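Limitations
The structure tokens in this dataset are predictions for the assembled complex, not deposited experimental models. Users should treat interface geometry with appropriate caution, especially where small molecules or nucleic acid strands are included. An illustrative entry is reproduced here so readers can see what is and is not provided.
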Amino acid sequence: MRPRRRARAGQYAALLAYLVFLAFPFLWLVSTAFKPATELASLHPAWIPRDPTLANFRQAFDEQPLLRAALNSLTAALSAAVVAVVIATPMAYVMARRRGALARAASGWVVVSQAFPFVLLIIPLFLVLKNLRLIDSVSGLVMVYVVWALPFALWMLTGYVRAVPAELEEAAAVDGAGRLRTLVSVTAPLLAPGIVATALFAFITAWNEFFFALVLLKTPEKQTLPVVLTHFIGAEGVADLGPLAAAAFLATLPSLVVFAIIQRRITGGMLAGAVKS
Amino acid sequence: MTSVTEARRPAPHAPGPGRPPGRAPDHGPWFLVLPALIPILVLSVGPLLYGVLLAFTDAQSGRTEPTRWIGTLNFQDLLHDTLFWESFRIGLVWAVGVTVPQFLLALGLALLLHQDLKLRWAARALAIVPWAMPEVVVGVMWRIVYNPDAGVLNETLRDLGLGDGRDWLSGLATALPAVIVVGVWAGMPQTTVALLAGLQNTPRELHEAAAVDGAGPWRRFRTVTWPAIRPIALAITALNLIWNFNSFALVYVLTNGGPGGRTRLPMLFAYEEAFRYGQFGYAAAMGCVMVAAISVALAVFLAGRLRGGDTA
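Predicted assembly:
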């Protein structure tokens, strides 16, 4: 069993290397966020701040309207997630249960929409939203986010619907339940965890989104967190690292928390969507 | 608790109790589909077609004269635009340079996570972190890592006595490799998760049977594992290629296309053309060229996949 043990050791070494590669940038970000300016300027920055401070966080809030931006991000992401799930669930249900031309066209769109560069989408959207006077407004951004989140939401939800056996619905019908009643009291409860996971995933993608927000929002008070973060970097690419790190760290926390909650479901949902029946 | 709803009148679309659910009146699906279909048509399909049409016009931002059809003039200009083709080349280098290592590293990690190792939970949780982070934060984070003075990379090099390090993101030779590393780091989680899901569908008995027959690890991988994960591996690689070719935020934050355009991906180029210089028509033409390139790449990829499917 000698070679076997050696193989194990090799596996642990490889796993450790992966852990270091994945973790070190984030740890360095956190470390930088808590370092006082003197340590940041020193030639030999240490991993653990010798004199940890919250000054960077204070300065970050002073320099940029972070709270305002976080509120904008929250509004945009929450509205987009709720609307996307509300309109995607019925459609996903039809896509999963019926194999008509419509379902095929919808699945085709889900795939094709991934291949189009955003720039080809954003120019016409920019012109359309401008005519509707929805440029530089969070509602315009929400509309874009909803459509942008739809392919993934449909993909995941279709998988979740397929996981609910159609026989259950048929049994309910045999027992005399109407179609709506079957949906409400048989399908919906089984689907609920999947719907929540999809909504949270849509929330994260919208919270993290940058390109559309950059193009559509011009007034500083209306911009979302990712756009405001880039303001910490000056025109010449020079940045005040401490506040930048502090703000970036804060901006990540909501996504990390939400992701930790749904991690298991996301992977399950992607798989479910991929399974062909 | 269900008896509360019992007394309610059935909704207008609900069929009578005697009717099997599969044969509901056909307006049922439409009523379910329309709320999503209308936004898709109005805000996705419509704009995409509009965008393709714009490529054949001289549309500009803030112009008072009406936009005119100019045929393929934009494309002819584009053909001679050496800056765009340079950017296109960088885009290809970036897309392949990110996708290939991303796949290999993710495959390795997925195989490790599939083993019965301690610390697996930590690796699984950590492997997800880059996925959850906003792309802008990933960019900011790596700027700090690459920072010539306060960055951990140069500091580590100094500690190891490997010289003074350098300014990675503004060096002409190092900028593109440096952003590619970030791209690999940021995209690994999705790929790992997808491959891991594929691995978990591999029949374990086959593995054990092959081991009993004396097949070494490499042979077992080639004959048992790879055929099982191949469809997922191909699908995620195709998606990664597309996503990477179209990526924007990471490089925008890291280098904004610099130094001297060495990292100016096609998306950055088209973005500047459209929203800095206001050349909507010309930028749309660039978008069309990108779509065409992606379609060709996908067609080649899928053709190879089908051919490979015959031999495997």
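Some entries come with short summary sentences. For this one: Confidence is low (pLDDT under 50) at residues 1-25 of chain B.
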